[in-house]
Design brief:
Radius of gyration: 17 Å
Largest sheet: 6 strands, parallel
Distance between the termini: 45 Å
Helix content: 25-40%
Low-confidence stretches: none
Number of strands: 8
Strand content: 15-25%
Structural class: alpha/beta
Order of helices and strands: EHEHEHEHHEHEHEE
Strand order of the largest sheet: 3-2-4-5-7-6
């Protein structure tokens, strides 16, 4: 029997593969944000997606976060599954009114008739030598907002499975990507069947004795 060597992959590579696989599986999945197309994102997470799927599905936007998220709301209302990239954590604050007033409330406002399957990717946290507006830990704002799922990956396999689950969710998901872990590596084979844990179910990495 021949053993195929599995090369270490980074978390950024796992996120890229998750986006690619989601876009290939469902034409309703669209990626939009600042520099996500030609450049491939500041952290290169969207690298190659515009070339493979076209600029209509991986779209560079103006520098207007409220407009980006507001556009995604309209897209979701018309049956698409937009994946928004906020370039840095603190850059997302101008879009917070859209998030609070529309994204988080739409299912409740319409009594369940209009879910908003939007994934909002937010690179967050410190540890990379970033300056002001580049190193915020903004998770508390999102966690305190009813109507949102808020998730973050800890490992390379988690990054793939959690992002696929977020995109598949019919409810809005704030997907916080720890910038310091973008280049962390793990043995992970993207060609093998991947485990996708449903949103809302925790993965137990180590059992404890506390009830």
């Amino acid at each position: 029997m021949t053993t195929v060597a599995v090369k270490p992959a980074t978390m950024a590579q796992a996120l890229t593969r998750a986006l690619r696989d989601a876009m290939a599986a469902d034409p309703a999945v669209h990626v939009l944000g600042e520099d996500v197309g030609t450049l491939g994102g500041v952290f290169r997470v969207t690298d190659g997606l515009a070339k493979e799927f076209g600029e209509d599905r991986c779209t560079d936007t103006p520098l207007a976060e409220a407009g980006i998220l507001g556009t995604a709301v309209g897209m979701a209302m018309y049956g698409l599954r937009p994946v928004v990239e906020m370039q840095f954590d603190a850059f997302a604050y101008p879009a917070f009114e859209q998030l609070l007033s529309h994204v988080a409330k739409m299912r409740n406002r319409t009594r369940g008739k209009m879910p908003l399957p939007i994934t909002i990717r937010v690179p967050y946290g410190g540890g990379i030598g970033g300056v002001e507006h580049h190193s915020d830990s903004s998770e508390a704002y999102y966690m305190a907002t009813p109507g949102l799922h808020v998730v973050t990956p800890a490992t390379v396999p988690d990054a793939y499975g959690l992002l696929r689950a977020a995109i598949a969710s019919d409810d809005p998901v704030v997907f916080l990507e720890p910038k310091r872990l973008y280049w962390s590596k793990d043995s992970w084979n993207p060609e093998q069947p991947q485990h996708v844990e449903p949103i809302g179910r925790a993965v137990v990495r180590r059992s404890g004795r506390s009830a």
